[in-house]
Amino acid sequence: MAKKSIKILEYANHFGLIWINGDREAMEREITERGINRPGLELAGFFDYAISKRLIFIGNKEASYIKKMKDKDIIKSMNFLMTEQCPGIIFCRGNECHPLILELAKEKNFPLFITNRSTSELMINSLTYLEEVLAPQTSIHGTLIEVFARGVVIIGESGIGKSETALELVKKGHRLVSDDRVDISYVRGKLIGKAPDLLTNMMEVRGIGIIDISKMFGINTILDTHEIDLIIKLVPLKTDVEMDRLGNNNDYYDILGQKIPLITIPVSGARSVGDIIEVAVTNYKLKQTGYNSTYEFEERLNELLRKDI
User: Fold this and answer.
1) Which domain holds residue 176?
2) Non-local CB neighbours of 73 within 8 Å, separated by 6+ positions
3) Looking at 29, 34, 150, 180, which residue is catalytic?
4) N or C: which end of the chain has fewer CB within 10 A?
5) Is 162 a catalytic residue?
6) Residue 64 sits in a domain of what CATH number?
7) 234 and 219 in one domain?
8) Active-site residue 141, yes or no?
9) 3-state DSSP call for residue 306?
10) Domain annotation covers residue 291
11) Does the annotation count 174 as an active-site position?
12) What's the domain count of the chain?
């Protein structure tokens, strides 16, 4: 999977930074790292450890230290920091850019910005923003719906009834996130699913066409995003294929390297798949609390066998 990036200009526009150096070519520099560099050690002359691909923030402490530095030391530190890989330097709290730094930046066509925001505020907001826009992403064919506060992705072959099942669940009071395709990002240790912009609030029902769930059933029946907790795979019911009847199998579905519990549900005209999914999610939640119905059943069975002996 290709590493994600955003242009420094896009970042600067998002946070309303004031441009002080760099032409259009410089604004094309890419941010690929989610971290931030506050270069105290580099300004002090420690160059053994380079963090060359991170944005650089100059706060009050760094700005005060720069004023006390000798010109040759400023040039040496800034030559180390202003690399081709570094997206740019931001002077926070309205701190002025030292003339030597501006001169060197002009020579290198290096992006410089100023903001009145506090360093800590901009750092926190930047880390959150970059975590989201640079998060690994993928898409899967399926329907994401919230059932009993759990994010459930319904997958299966085309025509198996994913959308119809989701519609049944919506009518039961559960909430739709995305139908047909789910865009997934791995953000802060969680898989977050959402609908592509084109499909937001929309659902395809065979024989009817595209319907707007929010208009038809109310705004409270949809969600913008939800964490993915469970994958439910719908398969045709085949009497000649043996299924797991006790629930001993622990299957998983891999998304961006994360293993999500997978439950396979056979589908037939005589089964209410919506009801079964509600039961599956409830049983999943019980397992999370430490209760396992299969284990309880096996314990009862063993107890009966011991009595017979």
Assistant:
1) 137-278
2) 45
3) 180
4) C
5) yes
6) 3.40.1390.20
7) yes
8) yes
9) helix
10) no
11) no
12) 2
